[in-house]
Write a structure and sequence with these properties.
- One of its GO terms (cellular component) is cytosol.
- It comes from Rhizobium leguminosarum bv. trifolii WSM2297.
- It catalyses: tRNA(Pro) + L-proline + ATP = L-prolyl-tRNA(Pro) + AMP + diphosphate.
- It is found in: Cytoplasm.
- The chain is of the alpha+beta class.
- It folds into two domains: 336 residues, BirA Bifunctional Protein, domain 2, CATH 3.30.930; 91 residues, Rossmann fold (3-Layer(aba) Sandwich), CATH 3.40.50.
- It has 14 helices and 23 strands.
- Strands 3, 7, 8, 9, 10, 11, 12, 13 and 16 form a nine-stranded mixed beta sheet that branches. Strands 20-19-21-22-23 form a five-stranded mixed beta sheet, sandwiched between helices.
- It binds 5'-O-(N-(L-cysteinyl)-sulfamoyl)adenosine (5CA).
Length: 440
């Protein structure tokens, strides 16, 4: 991508409305724009990061056996009247009427709709277990939307819904998502700790929130500090192995970890004082087992091996991609801007032409840009005629992991500089070596 032809509206000044660093940096880097309170557009640079986050989420959902579909944002009130949640949900739900005066709503979550899909076609235990997910916009009319896309009114959610014949089966499905979440957050460069959590309006008696420790987090959390060093389940994890997943679950629930709603002071005080971590955290995922709450209310039954009809056991599993992007920034930035983990960086490399219009610089940058693009790298080429200082500041701000800097003096020697955004280390090397550094 040539920066001169791209749309990346950088802000020079710090936006006054931004209270936390991620919100400030997302606005300054031209990633998002507020359209109305708690409702955001994702501008091209932000969209690239969001897409990469979603690709990792999708990959790990698929690995764990979940199947993607797409459900609409607008739902008919009837389904929610069946479950009883139409009245129970309160003002967070945006209620609308269509031209025939039929009550509709903008979905805050999809338990009812997915249960309706399930009951319409699954009739036998032989079709279980089943886990259906989508990545879709939601709307919750939050009283206090704040911190940009961290707590917005319209936001994206990956929501998965599992269906099993028995409670034991449903618990295995729960553990599949538990392990998938550990892998997902790790691939996003984050350390997320599963904590016992309250189930709120979703319901049920088994629930974990996945929390990233951060000073700006909205939740107060308490846990054993050893979680920070625990191993993540590997790529070869067998999601069908009941014992294997039980071992992962046991390990990751063996030590104290709870959000403030579930906090047990006495149990926490039993943890040796030096091992106690009392901190603030960002909830990036939340998983629930709620048994037959929706299937009984909505009549979703299957025939079991005993020939009888059984209400199906369900769980639901949410991740907030539009919250994860600022959460990643909260965990990874410095005074100059964002430092993206390679897995979600909007570009892999930025090529900085320090003197656009200078033949040798132009030729060198074009050569590098073409070679790296051909090798499948996402390259941003800063071919604008801005001052070198502005270009460096922009490259640092947007946090691309590597910068290749081509200035007239180095280029005259057939060389360029390669800068690592995270460490700040700069290395001068031949043009060929710079290309091979990323292609080889
Ligand atoms: N149906 C269940 C799971 S599918 C559910 O709705 N869970 S939830 O309410 O906990 O939301 C799931 C995830 O969505 C949260 O962990 C969080 O990451 C994200 N999320 C929830 N509300 C917001 C919001 N207002 N802004 C941004 N992300 C949000």
């Amino acid at each position: 991508m040539r920066l001169s032809r791209y749309f990346m509206p950088i802000l020079k000044e710090n936006p006054k409305e931004a209270e936390i660093v991620s919100h400030r940096l997302m606005l300054r880097a031209g990633m998002i724009r507020q359209q109305s309170q708690g409702i955001y557009s994702w501008l091209p640079l932000g969209k690239r990061v969001l897409d990469k986050v979603n690709a990792i989420i999708r990959d790990e959902q698929n690995r764990a056996g979940a199947i993607e579909l797409s459900m609409p944002t607008l739902q008919s009130a009837e389904l929610w009247q069946e479950s009883g949640r139409y009245d129970a949900y309160g003002k967070e739900m945006l209620r609308i009427k269509d031209r025939q005066d039929r009550p509709m709503l903008y979905g805050p979550t999809n338990e009812e709709m997915v249960t309706d899909i399930f009951r319409s076609s699954v009739k036998s235990y032989k079709d279980l277990p089943l886990n259906l997910y989508h990545i879709q916009l939601k709307f919750r009319d939050e009283i206090r939307p704040r911190f940009g896309t961290m707590r917005s009114r319209e936001f994206m959610m990956k929501d998965a819904y599992s269906f099993d014949l028995t409670r034991e089966g449903a618990e295995h499905s729960y553990k599949k998502m538990f392990a998938a979440y550990l892998r997902t957050f790790d691939r996003l460069g984050l350390r997320a700790i599963p904590m016992r959590a309250d189930t709120g309006p979703i319901g049920g008696d088994l629930s974990h929130e996945f929390i990233i420790l951060a000073d700006t987090g909205e939740s107060e959390v308490f846990c054993h500090k050893d979680f920070v060093g625990f191993d993540i389940p590997g790529e070869s994890t067998d999601f069908d192995s009941v014992e294997g997943l039980q071992a992962i679950f046991d390990k990751w629930t063996s030590l104290y970890a709870a959000t403030s709603e579930m906090h047990d002071e006495a149990a926490f005080n039993a943890v040796p004082e030096g091992d106690r971590l009392s901190a603030r955290g960002i909830e990036v995922g939340h998983i629930f087992y709620f048994g037959t709450k929706y299937t009984e209310a909505m009549g979703a039954k299957v025939q079991g091996p005993d020939g009888k009809e059984h209400f199906v056991h369900m769980g639901s599993y949410g991740i907030g991609p539009t919250r994860l992007v600022p959460a990643i920034i909260e965990a990874s930035h410095d005074d100059n801007g964002i430092i993206w983990p390679a897995s979600v960086a909007p570009f892999d490399i930025v090529v900085i032409n320090m003197k656009a219009g200078d033949q040798a610089c132009d030729d060198t940058c074009e050569l590098i840009y073409a070679a790296l693009s051909k090798a499948g790298k996402d390259v941003l080429y800063d071919d604008t005629d801005d001052r070198a200082g502005t270009k460096f500041a922009t490259a640092d701000l947007i946090g691309v992991p590597f910068q290749i800097i081509a200035g007239p003096r180095a280029v005259a020697n057939g060389e360029v500089e390669v800068k690592d955004r995270k460490t700040g280390a700069r290395e001068t090397m031949t043009i060929e070596a710079a290309i091979n550094r990323f292609v080889a």
